[in-house]
Amino acid sequence: MSYDDPWDFSDSGSSDLYEDSRAEWEEDSEEAQSSSEQRSSEQLYGSHSNSSGGDEDEDMAFEENRSRTTDETMTETDDISVDQSDIRSGSELESMVSFQRFSVVGRGRKHGGRGGGDANSMTTFSRVPTSQRSQSPEVETVVVDEDIARELIKEEYGRTVSNYSDLYFLPLDEEERDRLRKQHEMFIAVMGGKYPPMMGSVLASTVPGEKAVLDLGAGSGCWIKDVARDFPLCEAVAVDLVPLSDHDDLPPNVRTEVDDINYGLTHFHNCFDVVHVRLLAMGIRNYREMVHDITHVLRPGGLVEYFQSDLHAYDENMERVEVDMNRIGAPWWPIWLAYMTASVRARGIDTTVGEKTEEWVRETGEYETVVSNDVWLPVVPGPDPLHDEFVCENMRVDIMSFLRSTRPMILDSGVPENLVDVLEDNTIRELNESNTAQYIKVLKVFLRK
Question: Exposure of 355 by Cβ count < 10 A (0-12 exposed, 13-18 middle, 19+ buried)?
Fold first, then answer.
């Protein structure tokens, strides 16, 4: 795999632009690093440490990854050195705003686990002081008007993001929802169905509202709307940082709530028969704590499904690609993913949860059935693809859209824009032109309580 050298700054103006940008990046990162040293790991990762390795082990593993090379087939760009330490620590990103808790109700039946009365076609929310957020309290419900709706979002780097989460920085706009809709259809094709086994028996009932389903981080709402239509007697609740956008298309048994899951799920304890968690790690401060909390959300006999990437790139042999972020060159997708993961970690998020989820659910001791398997998704399908053309093409489109979605987060971590441009342009070129297979791995776990 070879490309023209994007780092050929033969034009003196371009060279000056790069050097000026790099100098500014280094200056900013030094200030951020000094600030970061004053923060404890408890502030970054929550009060509960991970059961497997902890923060210190994770940092050591990350340092080891940095010392390895991306691939034997490096381009001429190998001579360009980029210091990973220049990326901001993320401490400046923490607690910039006094965040408030929202709990939003859309149309649907009243939910037994939380007050608010019978829902109607209006979207409503509830607010409590930030000082109470760890208590996950019952809250008063009010109507969401246009002013409140505007408070939920803000514009950053040309995309709409959450104004009430200090962690999640992926967009919440229509472009992102469209990506998630297409991704949902691709996942159905990959997994051969919409739902995990046993879901039909878990939701079997002839009593309206007797069974309840919770979708945490509902995104586009495609999964929870499918559930509501396929199981019309159940109550379906979608939780996200903004309400589901297409209210006119919501089945009557769907309610949408706006909430930051990091505040806790105590108000949902013993209220749901099914809980769905898909690709949520990039917005969760303490994923292990959430896993244990979900155990209490489930009623006896309930079912939970986790679907989470490990945020690593894999080569044609399905071996992990170890990235040296001191050098820039092909393969480009692993480099982009490494920068993205570093920016996620800088926001205080554990990026190893995809590798630990099964361990954490087993340690609860609450599940009689635990089934897990790895799902391999093609970034570049290669000459002998694992999946059909529909999956491969939709995955390619999804990754290219994902580059645009994660670009603001990488920029916000302090990476120079011209470097981000180089990474993005070459990754897109690789996706379109390479014939060397690359994959990402997603862990799928479903459990019966």
Answer: middle
Q: What are phi and psi of 352, to 5 degrees?
A: -105, 10
CB atoms within 10 A of CB 287: 26
pTM of the model: 0.73
Q: State the Cα–Cα distance between residues 117 and 164, nearest whole angstrom.
A: 25
Give the integer Cα–Cα distance in Å for 219 and 256: 11
* Sequence-distant (≥ 6) Cβ neighbours of residue 237 within 8 angstroms: 108, 111, 212, 213, 214, 215, 224, 254, 255, 256, 257, 272
Asked whether the predicted pLDDT for residue 308 surpasses 50, the reply is: yes
How many Å apart are CA 263 and CA 239, to the nearest integer?
Answer: 13
- Give 214-250 pLDDT, tens digit per residue: 999 999 999 999 999 999 999 999 999 988 876 668 8
* End-to-end alpha carbon distance in the chain: 49
The gap from C-alpha 139 to its chain's centroid, in whole angstroms, comes to: 27
Give the burial class of 156: count Cβ atoms within 10 A of its Cβ; 0-12 exposed, 13-18 middle, 19 or more buried: middle
Name the DSSP letter for residue 117: -
Asked whether the beta carbons of 233 and 171 are under 8 A apart, the reply is: no
